[in-house]
């Protein structure tokens, strides 16, 4: 999986934890991180059956939080560029029920990952997301949010740890909840990236 920066000394992580304590009145006990990416070769070919050569960045997204007992999921984004409101609350999905996309749009990426998470059932939790990836900058802030969310859920209620299935679930979340027909490159490199390495992906298979 993607190798994180040193979260112990991360200002981004510290800021997210402060917001969690202020918003929810308690410390976050779980933390997850996922990187953005830059693509070196093969722009727009991942969804056309070609080859791409992305590399994970040290810029990334964190998600910190804690489980709750009331079956409610409450999430705050620290991004001033995200659409309002910056706090959402909804019920954790129960067996036979499902989440639905809506407003604000930023929350759909998180909802989609919860819906397509391969472990579970997902309990209630409080969380704060923070990122230093510029929105709309072509560095895959959406995939980083999806993968950070999935990694957070793996701590909350572990799945089988299949990394390819994790990337595919995050891609499916973006397709079905954000309405973006993206290829697999962004999610794959955010899950699989390693420091100092680019990753050649054959998107034909």
From TrEMBL:
Domain GHMP kinase N-terminal: residue ranges: 108-194
UniProt cross-references to Pfam families, sorted A to Z: GalKase_gal_bdg, GHMP_kinases_N
Family to which the UniProt record says this protein belongs: Belongs to the GHMP kinase family. GalK subfamily.
One Gene Ontology CC term in the entry: cytosol
Superkingdom of this protein's organism: Eukaryota
SUPFAM superfamilies in the cross-refs: Ribosomal protein S5 domain 2-like
Any single GO BP term: galactose metabolic process
One term of GO molecular function: galactokinase activity
Gene that specifies this protein: Galk1
Name the record gives this protein: GALK1 Galactokinase
Domain Galactokinase N-terminal as annotated: residue spans: 20-67
Keywords: ATP-binding, Kinase, Nucleotide-binding, Transferase
């Amino acid at each position: 999986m993607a190798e994180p920066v040193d979260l112990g000394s991360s200002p981004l992580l510290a800021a997210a934890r402060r917001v969690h304590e202020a918003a929810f009145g308690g410390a976050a006990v779980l933390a997850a991180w996922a990187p953005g990416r830059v693509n070196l070769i093969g722009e727009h070919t991942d969804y056309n059956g070609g080859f791409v050569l992305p590399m994970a960045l040290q810029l990334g997204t964190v998600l910190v939080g804690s489980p709750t007992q009331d079956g409610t999921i409450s999430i705050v984004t620290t991004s001033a560029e995200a659409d309002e409101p910056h706090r959402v609350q909804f019920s954790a999905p129960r067996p036979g029920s499902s989440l639905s996309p809506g407003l604000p749009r930023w929350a759909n990426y998180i909802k989609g990952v919860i819906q397509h998470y391969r472990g579970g059932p997902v309990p209630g939790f409080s969380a704060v997301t923070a990122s230093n990836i510029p929105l709309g900058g072509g560095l895959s802030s959406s995939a980083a949010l999806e993968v950070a969310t999935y990694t957070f859920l793996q701590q909350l209620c572990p799945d089988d740890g299949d990394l390819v299935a994790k990337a595919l679930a995050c891609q499916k979340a973006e397709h079905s909840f954000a309405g973006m027909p993206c290829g697999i490159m962004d999610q794959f490199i955010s899950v699989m990236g390693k420091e100092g390495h680019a990753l050649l992906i054959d998107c034909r298979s």
